[in-house]
Structures are given as structure tokens and as C-alpha cells.
Amino acid sequence: MKITLSKKLFFVCLSFILGIILNFLPFYIFLIIGLIILSLFWKKHAFVSLCLVSFSLGILRTETAFKEGNLIKFVNQEITIEGQVISEPCFSEKSTSFNVKVNKEKLLIITYPYFDIEYGDIIEVKGELKEPPIFDTFNYRTYLKQQGIFTLMSFPKIERKDKVITPYSYLLSFKQSLRNIIYSNLSPPQRDILSAMLLGDKDRMSDDLKENLNIVGLRHITAVSGMHVTVLAGILMSLLLGIGLYRGQAFYFSLILIFLFIILIGFHSSAIRAGIMAGFLLLGQKLGRKSENSRLLIFVLALMLFHNPLALFYDAGFQLSFLAVAGIIYLGPYLQKKLRFLPKLGFVDLKTILAMTLAAQIFTFPILLYHFNQFPIISPLANLLVVPIVYWIILLGFIFLFFSLILPFLSYILVFSVFVLLKYINFIIEKLSFFPILRLEMPILLVFVFYTLIIFFTFKVYKKYSFLEI
Description:
By secondary structure, the chain is an alpha+beta fold. It has helices at residues 5-21, 27-40, 42-63, 140-145, 167-185, 190-199, 207-216, 226-242, 247-265, 269-287, 293-307, 311-314, 316-330, 332-338, 350-372, 379-406, 408-432, 444-461, and strands at residues 78-85, 90-91, 96-102, 105-111, 121-128, 149-154, 157-163, 344-345, 348-349, 374-376, 437-439. Helix content is 61%, strand content 12%. The strands form 3 sheets. Strands 1, 2, 3, 4, 5, 6 and 7 form a 7-stranded mixed beta sheet that branches. Strand 3 and strand 4 form a beta hairpin. The longest helix has 28 residues, at 379-406.
């Protein structure tokens, strides 16, 4: 069987990912074997050797990712250091947190709620340096490790020294302008949900709202994902084509604006994945070629893991994001066939929504229990009632922000439509938040057993997506 170039790239990327998973093996053995085969049997075994080289590079990349710096030497000591704020501050009801760059290292600062601090500020901090804690249900230390952060200060003395203005500072100012538009036209919790959907402000939601979203299994709607980026890409392409640009020109402008949007919301893993996939899908449309989502997903996963291989092990959000998409791609079509008896109510395709929801939840169920020891039982019903509305909130929300910037008097019409839809979602959240949550600890061994069964079942029932046909 002849393997196409895209399939070869798929297996090379898959080999790299497997190298990251099996990073405890000595990488140089596979690298040497791969290079020997590559040099001696280029034409006959080049593909096998490239996979071995890619596998070894996955191991090597994991070994060289994020090493501890000098700050760790001063743990449990009170020190005074100067650095630059390099992240948008995260404000919540309990604290404000942000990252500071000290020489070439990152330091996490946790201080009082709504503390007056901005990206680019040069500050002097004085306090006791600590290692991130490990909680009973969450390993905060490993979560920060995959971001390259090994130390933190809680409620230190902070003195602002100077400020550095960068292009990102102007982008954050623009984001604040958009946030002000939302906040001045909507009240909580509607404004918090819309701001999370469109601007990535999920950490600004109240603790009660976050908890209710978790109970009903709708927390994912507030994380910028594939749906958000797809809607934005569609709006941009339509708008740019409507003002007279050629399709090729509209494609490049859309890519640039999507990239700026991902920067704007703070480089969340789900948004980066969605942005890369949206870029390739737009490229496929420009070239007139059909994109293979399964191959594209693996390529995007390899690309993101090359940047940060530790996210595969320590970032629950990263894991859930990719597992949900994998479930939709591999299991979704099979479930759609089984649910074909469900009717289509206007623009709401019940079988598609329920199939995608169930597929995503089947693939994320074990890892959710492993990380959080709980699973929302009411989630399928909540998603069935809410997901069809999310598309229209995103669409009307982006249009509302756009008109608020150029034609403010028209925004009042659009904001009312958005408000009604958000009010409906909040109504569903409140009515379903009294349902119990399944609470159960999931040992790591059982996680592997579950995913083995899920993968076996998925490929068994849907053979036309067999491994060699991916």
C-alpha cells in the first residue's frame, strides 16, 4: 500500500508525540538507529528512519524542556528582586495574579484582589520566595512547571518603578476597550459569560458562576475554542469579501486577524489549537483541497507539544481540549448514525449536537475523574439545551462589538438579542445546577484501561477510519 505524503507526515508527527509520552527511554539509541537507516537505505527505509528520528526528538525535547533556574536556590528566604510584568493580570474575587520576568526566569506573584498592576510594569517585589504548593486534589506545582514557573511570592510588598510600552500593551488596551463595552451594556452574570466567550476572561467570572457551570457541565462554553474561532473566521471572510477583497487577500487578512485575536485573549491552549486548525482549514479552502481533521489534529498536537511537551502531562485543560476534539472526530460520526432518529428542529440538529456532546464526554470522562474526581451527570441535557445557542451568541457578540466601535447607535439593537440569549443560558444553568455530581476517584491505571477500551471500541465500530486510513 502506497502511503501518501500527508499520511507520512501524520506518522512522523505521531512518532514525535509517542517519543514525548515514552520520554524515559534513551533518545540517542533511536536517533542513531534512525540516522543509520536513513544514510544506508535512503530510498527503501527512509520513512521508517524518519519516524525513529522523530521519536527520538520527542524524547530529547521533553528532556530539555523548562529547567529550574537560579530563583529556586532562594526558596523559603525573604528577598527583594526587580522584574517586568509579562502577563495580563488575572483578577478574581480572592486575588490578583501575574507573571514577572526576573532576568530570564518567570516568577508568579499572587496579591490582593483587583490590585492596580498592568502588563509591562517594572516592579520591585519584597517577600518570601516559595515553591508552588501541592494540594490534595490538584498538583499546582506541576501545573506551573509546564509553564516554566518554579517559584512564587504570595502578597509581597510591591513598588512600581517604571513601565515598558510594547505593541502587546496597545493590544491589551484595545481588549480593555472591548471589555468596557460589554461591561457597560450588560450586567452580571450575562456580561461575565459574554466576556469569557469573546475575550477569554473566564478567570474573571464569580466563583459561584464557575461552580454552577462545572455542576451542569457547561464550563467549556466559556473557553475560547474551535467554535469561537470558526465563527470569527467566517465573519472575517464574509466581511472582507463583502468590501471587495479577492479571496486570497481575504484569506491572509483573516489569518492575521485570527492570530491577533489569539494573542488578545492570552494564548490559551484551546484557542491556539483552534487557531492553527482554522488557519489550515482556511488554507484548504483557498487551495481547493479538503482538510483531513484527524491528520490535522495530530499535526497541531505535535506542533504545540514541540513548543511545550510538558503540557501533555501536567495541563488538564490542554488534555481535555484535545481529547474532546478527538472524540468528536473519531466517535462523533458513529454516534450520529445511531441517533439519526432524532428530529431536526429548525436550525437545531438534535442528532449532531447530542452526538458531538456524547463523543466529547466519552473521551474526556476518564481524565475528568482523574484530575477533578467528579463528573456532571446532567451534562448531556445541559449541552443539548445550550450548545445550539452558543453559536448565535458568539456570532451576534462579535457583530455587537464591531458595531459598538464604528456605529454605536446600532449596538443597542444587537445587545438586546445577545442579552436575551445569555439570559436563557443563565436560566438553564440555575435550573440544572441542583442536580448531583458523580464523585469518584480514578486511579491512573484505570485511566489507561478506560482509554484502551475507548480506543478499541472506536476503531472497531468505525472501521472506515482504521489506523492506516487516517
